[in-house]
Specification:
The protein has nine helices and eleven strands. By secondary structure, it is α/β, with parallel strands linked by helices. The strands form three sheets. A seven-stranded mixed β-sheet has the order 7-6-5-8-9-11-10, with helices on both faces. It is globular, with a radius of gyration of 18 Å.
Length: about 270
């Protein structure tokens, strides 16, 4: 069975139709229809090819889109911005950037402020609306495994908090396709720390679960995110997939006492 991915608004950057074959996914494909109306009607067909997509859609919803920036800043004790500046530094001189899981546009805004040309894609429509209120950039609603962009469209592809939700190999295959030679891909996400920090981590998430009783729009995230992070081996999967695809200069760095990591690599 062959699925055709969503089509987004006319603002989608360098669009193309891309066929996706279910058999190439390691999991059952889920179909999600999203219909939105504004000045023109936009009909989106999202092909969800990984269970993590369903998890992400449970976490990031219309109810918490407006509060995301505040919550991520408070919940990471301000480290979110520091991590995103590290991603920006990794991009270096490259100018045409695609952000996967761009969300409300925190990272895209930082990149744009540094003179980069940024495009974004995200699974949650309401988060994209939030991005559009702060940044004029071409955006699309969709998944990172099925990118609606032409081959060789970007100098760099970046993401923050995406890797634990996706089929990493499929994402990296798509990154290879839309990257230009010499381009860089950067993945950043949470990691489960070791030693004493792990004990502090567990205590902290108990407090978050308690906070979720009062901040109801974030209740599901505060209750389940810890388990998602613990079960994810995204760092090893990403490095392995990058090697399989023949990316070069693969680098992994850990931040904030091992609570997050950044993996980067270059397309020869």
């Amino acid at each position: 069975m062959t699925f055709w991915p969503f089509r987004s608004s006319s603002e989608t950057f360098l669009c193309q139709f891309t066929k996706y074959n279910q058999s190439s996914s390691g999991s059952k494909a889920l179909i999600y229809f999203s219909i939105h109306k504004s000045r023109t009607t936009v009909i989106a067909l999202l092909v969800l090819v990984h269970e993590g997509h369903a998890q992400a859609m449970r976490f990031f919803t219309r109810a918490n889109a407006d509060s995301y920036d505040l919550i991520v800043r408070l919940a990471t004790f301000g480290q979110d911005i520091a991590w995103k500046h590290e991603i920006t530094r990794a991009v270096t001189h490259r100018s045409q950037i695609l952000e996967l899981a761009c969300g409300t546009g925190i990272l895209s805004s930082i990149l744009a402020q540094r003179g980069k040309s940024v495009a974004g894609i995200d699974i949650t429509f309401e988060y994209l609306l939030s991005l559009k209120r702060k940044l004029k950039a071409p955006i699309a609603q969709g998944t990172a495994e099925v990118l609606p962009y032409r081959d060789g469209s970007f100098d760099a592809i970046v993401s923050s908090y995406l890797a634990k939700y996706v089929d990493v190999q499929k994402v990296i295959d798509e990154c290879w396709r839309v990257l230009r030679p010499g381009g860089i891909v950067v993945f950043h996400d949470f990691t489960y720390p070791r030693g004493l920090i792990r004990n502090l981590w567990n205590i902290y998430f108990e407090l978050l679960r308690l906070a979720g009783r009062f901040v109801t729009s974030w209740k599901v995230v505060f209750r389940q995110l810890d388990d998602v992070i613990k079960k994810s081996d995204w760092v090893d999967q990403t490095i392995g997939a990058l090697k399989n695809k023949k990316f070069q200069n693969i680098n992994c760095r850990c931040y904030t006492a091992g609570t997050s990591a950044m993996v980067s690599a270059e397309k020869p």
